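step=predict obj=EAL domain-containing response regulator n=399
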Amino acid sequence: MQHLNVLVVEDEPLQRLVTITALRKVIPGQIHEAISGSQALALLESCEAIDIAICDLKMPGMDGLAFLRHASHSGKLRAVILCSQIDLALRNTTVSMIKRLGLHFLGSLSKPFNLERLTTLLNRYQPLRHDLGSPLTRIAQPTLSDVVRGLDNGEFEPYYQPKVALDTAALQGAETLARWNHPQLGVLPPSHFLTIMEDHNLLDRLFWQLFDQGLALRSKLARKDLALNFSFNLHPAQLASPTLTESVTSLLTLFQVPSSCITFEITETCVLGASACNLENLVRLRLMGCGLAMDDFGAGFASLQRLCELPFNQIKLDGNFVRKMKHHPASRAIIRYTLALGDALGMKVIIEGVETHEQQEQLLQLGGALAQGFLFARPMPESHFIAYCSKHSSSPLTP
């Protein structure tokens, strides 16, 4: 495990001692401690950055809720693990608050302390750090001129995350995700550039660059006898375009990719209050033979209504349900219900966010068949994905 700076905010001496002792066994790095929110905040202000705060909520003086609010404003705290015995509904609301503060929620620790659970939550931070860099890097967002220069110079490229069979991990397809190969900051995820692109109408340029590169790779793999389904995320800016389907058709023809091998992933919020043009494009994409997946199913407010109204043929179940599955019975029920719903509607259900073998086994017991997640593979650049395909495809690639 990589070097971490961890802050334990806990007023109970025994619980604090047990947590710190366990941390020293499983991670290298600095471990800080505080008995109240005010002490933790003072410590945070005096240091460069904290990767993870393991935080109780009920403390004298400044409680955990106030500490997290102030800590988020400092820009020095990256992620949070809750260690507090509170009602499940209150915990869920607190988790939503943490995310809205711009902090990453890794999960909850129960009392008494569980070392295996702690190790699992700490491991969740590693891919997060890999993708986003240090907290200080996160503060310095690129400027509009940086983004335009990156688009002009072809610095944006697709990374591919495999979709696999849940039982055997056999490769089924891949989701195409945007990454920026910044010449100074390294590989940057969408959190560093999507807002700027949305504000300045640049998403269309990004989408067509990624679509072009993705289709080129899909053609290359097909020539090696591996015909995979590739999926691409559609933003409202693309879905509202009157020339969307015409442009998609032209590129599919150019790269000789069957429309049935392409899926467009669309979040529920993307189609809330959809215009007539948006709805026409959805229908045209399906008439062309492309797949449509409702992304982050269950994360919005009207998923069932949208499934009835719009021509989706796939459901991507939001990964939060998988992360909560072990300690939140309602999440298991929602997963089981979604799998049954997909079966009844004749839709494939792809389960996102699978991180552990335990989750894999539980999802198989619930009837899951298709999945994505760090257990199988992280998003990877083209060269790595080709190597992954060679290793994990059902038949070896031809030279």
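step=describe
Residues 203-223 form the longest helix (21 residues).
step=end
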